[in-house]
Design a protein that fits this description.
SWI5 homologous recombination repair protein; DNA repair; 27 residues; mainly alpha; 2 helices; DNA damage; DNA-repair_Swi5
Length: 27
């Protein structure tokens, strides 16, 4: 997943990254 790779590059967790994009990946 692209967001996952961005999270790794930025050094943050995907859980921290999702809200940053206004996404609700709690599903």
């Amino acid at each position: 997943m692209l967001l996952g790779k961005l999270a790794v590059i930025r050094g943050v967790t995907t859980k921290e990254l999702y809200p940053e994009f206004g996404l609700d990946m709690n599903d």
